[in-house]
Design brief:
alpha+beta; binds iron/sulfur cluster; 8 helices; binds FE2/S2 (inorganic) cluster; single chain; 36% helix; two-stranded antiparallel ribbon
Amino acid sequence: MNLTLHVWRQKNASDKGRMEIYQARDINHHMSFLEMLDVVNEELIAKGTDPIHFDHDCREGICGMCSLVIDGIPHGHQKQTTVCQLHMRYFKDGDHIYVEPWRAKAFPIVKDLVVDRSAFDRIMQAGGFVSVNAGGAPDGNAIPIPKDDAESAMDAAACIGCGACVAACKNASAMLFVAAKVSQFAYLPQGQVERERRVRAMVAQMDAEGFGGCTNQYECEAVCPKGISVSMIAKMNREFGHALAKGEAKRRAGGAG
Ligand code: SF4
Ligand code: FES
């Protein structure tokens, strides 16, 4: 198939950026979207032109690196699919496809389609570590965990930190990502020691990074390639309220808070 691509090109963070048109020729419909871009880039490199820069790593839907807004939707129109797993069979010969980077103040553009998502790393770092010594692989069922809690923790841990939720939100809110990361520990006994400190620190860092607030648009859930539910945000809000109340109770009792 042959396609016309409208791609955002931007030299660096201070460049204004613009859409440019490229032809993608002889594309096999079994290729992924990123493999299609590889074909376009090979042609650009052969011509001595600067290739289109985009983020990728595993190309298996597990690392969270790929990040393209395709025809206005982060990761494209296929539900629960990362852009590296989006195949060209979902497009038609002759299609015009618009390719842009995540757009959010907290994710500054580095070059073309590459954005700096280190704000997510700093939120994770603010959460700190789990101080329970996990030791070697424990015997199965050594720490009894209710099935529902174990499944909720696994659902939260499915978040790959891609940032599509931020890109889809009109407020550029990072609530779905942070909620998943808070919840994956809050559901498990190993995460209890720092439970209150962790949620307060991660929410504070999220705000410091310039992400917007959640106004229940549900756009994050709609584009999440891992199907993270907005119910995680409700869980995080409960965790945050509990942590604040506990801190206040300690303060009144003359404790550290
Ligand atoms: S919640 Fe979903 S969209 Fe947001 S970072 Fe995690 S996997 Fe990506
Ligand atoms: S490149 Fe790893 S999830 Fe897409």
